[in-house]
Amino acid sequence: QVQLVESGGGLVQAGGSLRLSCAASGSIFSINNMGWYRQAPGNQRELVASITSGGSTDYADSVKGRFNISRDVAKSTMYLQMNSLKPEDTAVYYCNAVVRRLRGGNYNYWGQGTQVTVSS
């Protein structure tokens, strides 16, 4: 099996920063695309940022210039540095990864989510 574990969420004031981490473990041959999603109460889950195995990144317009996604391939870990946080960034943040398992096949996995709350 494969597990994705997020950490780094919490409560921060507007204008502050947080760094989320997502560590993958289990029967992993390689990790392809990874991404961070978020879901606020009453809203659909939305893509915040994504990163390919080659390091190419993409961001939602609402976070461009404020958030930075990165990954450490050797550690099977992805990060999301969030700066200049706004109350509208408040949501549960989920890690997502497309993993090629040791037994073969590509599978989509989700973490359990971590709460980010930005106070005004």
Note down, in words, how this protein is organized:
The chain is an all-beta fold and 120 residues long. Helices cover 0% and strands 62% of the residues. The chain has no helices and eleven strands. Strands 2, 4, 5, 6, 9, 10 and 11 form a seven-stranded mixed beta sheet that branches. The chain has a four-stranded antiparallel beta sheet with strand order 1-3-8-7, with no helix packed on it. The mean pLDDT is 96.
Summary, kept brief:
The chain is built from no helices and 11 strands. The chain is 0% helix and 62% strand.
SS field, number of helical segments: 0
Listing every helix as H and every strand as E from the N terminus to the C terminus, the arrangement reads EEEEEEEEEEE
Q: What is the terminal-to-terminal distance?
A: 40 Å
Query: Low-confidence segments, ≥5 residues, pLDDT <50?
Result: none
Strand content: over 45%
- The geometry reads as elongated
Relative helix content: under 10%
- Integer-rounded radius of gyration: 14 Å
**In terms of structural class, how would the helical and strand content be classed?**
mainly beta
Summed over residues and divided by their number, the pLDDT gives a mean of 96
How many strand segments? 11
Largest sheet: 7 strands, mixed
